[in-house]
Amino acid sequence: MKKIIFTGVTGLLLVACKPTTVEAVKEDKKEVTEAAVEFPNATVAEGSTLYIENCGSCHKLKPIKNYTTEQWAKIVPPMAKKAKIDSEKEAKILAYVTWQTQN
């Protein structure tokens, strides 16, 4: 009887510990964003890239339209400082999010 219980428990443990495989699909965020949107100028286009690369590297990208232009003007500067983004890149990111909130 003990052999049967031991064999059953061992079998359950082996099945429970079986590694599962999950197929991961990784999309290049930059390509998807740039292919889907036509930007009004190079500054906004570069701001899009900077937003994805810099902001998206630390946390999940925020839906831009969930915030107003004024809110973004308060969000971007402290985040840029934390991420050590220079003022030129910060201005491009702000230009991009401003353009997105208005379109």
Structure description:
- By secondary structure, this protein is mostly helical.
- It has one domain (26-102).
- The protein contains five helices and no strands.
- It has helices spanning 2-16, 29-36, 42-58, 69-82, 87-102.
- Helix 2 packs antiparallel against helix 3 (42-58), helix 3 packs across helix 5 and helix 4 (69-82) runs antiparallel to helix 5 (87-102).
- The relative contact order is 0.13.
Strand content: under 5%
Please mark out the parts with pLDDT under 50 across 5 or more consecutive residues, or reply none: 22-34
Number of helices: 5
H/E topology pattern: HHHHH
Sheet/helix structural class: mainly alpha
* Main sheet specs: none
Indicate the topology:
Blueprint: H1 2-16, H2 29-36, H3 42-58, H4 69-82, H5 87-102
Provide tags for this entry.
103 residues; elongated
Quick overview of this protein structure:
This protein is mainly alpha-helical. The protein has one domain. 68% of the residues lie in helices and 0% in strands.
